[in-house]
Design brief:
Layout lengths: L1 H45 L10 E3 L2 E7 L5 E10 L2 E13 L4 E8 L6 E9 L2 E9 L5 E12 L2 E8 L6 E8 L2
Antiparallel strand pairs: 1-2, 1-10, 2-3, 3-4, 4-5, 5-6, 6-7, 7-8, 8-9, 9-10
Length: 179
């Protein structure tokens, strides 16, 4: 009698495990189909990054890199400084397509700069990446900027950062793709 109960329990456990496995497989198939359907808007929203992807973009002793994330729904960026012949990471982060707000957002973390975190709200206009940027220092003080990145030729882009104040200063630099 005890032996029969144990078999029944094992059988129920096996049946439940098989059902869970079947549900998991159906869920995975459903998610993969849904992912394929919903990936297109993110990929097209992020397509403006295409000219920046790959290689190193240099300006003096600094350079930046941009690489695609999974399914081209995000872009990873890194900024480096060459000091005493050694490469030092200055900032790292990503832009991503936020499906809830249908916008490109970004977050970067920096070191040895007047800020520690940058939050981006971005979009493309006529091939120019335009971002509203909020910087935070290690005390949480916010500053606001507009940043633009405009590819000016296949191997160069113009970067501009303007303070949000009415009399805000603008910094400009042209980065070139390193050979």
């Amino acid at each position: 009698l005890v032996r029969g109960r144990i078999m029944t329990i094992k059988r129920r456990g096996t049946t439940s495990a098989l059902k869970r496995l079947a549900y998991a497989q159906l869920l995975a198939i459903g998610l993969s189909l849904t992912h394929a359907i919903h990936a297109a808007p993110a990929s097209s929203a992020m397509s403006g990054f295409e000219p920046l992807i790959g290689g190193q973009w240099a300006l003096g002793s600094t350079y930046q890199t941009y690489t695609w994330g999974p399914d081209r729904q995000s872009v990873f960026g890194e900024s480096f400084v060459i000091q005493n012949g050694e490469k030092a990471l200055g900032a790292k982060g990503l832009w991503y397509f936020d499906p809830a707000s249908k916008t490109i957002k970004g977050v970067f973390v920096a070191t040895n700069m007047p800020f520690t975190v940058l939050h981006y709200r971005s979009h493309f206009e006529a091939g120019t990446l335009i971002s509203q940027v909020t910087s935070l220092n290690n005390l949480g003080t916010e500053n606001h900027y507009q940043e633009t990145i405009r590819v000016t030729q296949p191997d160069a882009y113009l970067w501009e950062l303007t303070e949000a104040d009415p009399s805000g200063n603008t910094m400009k630099a042209e980065f070139h793709r390193a050979p």
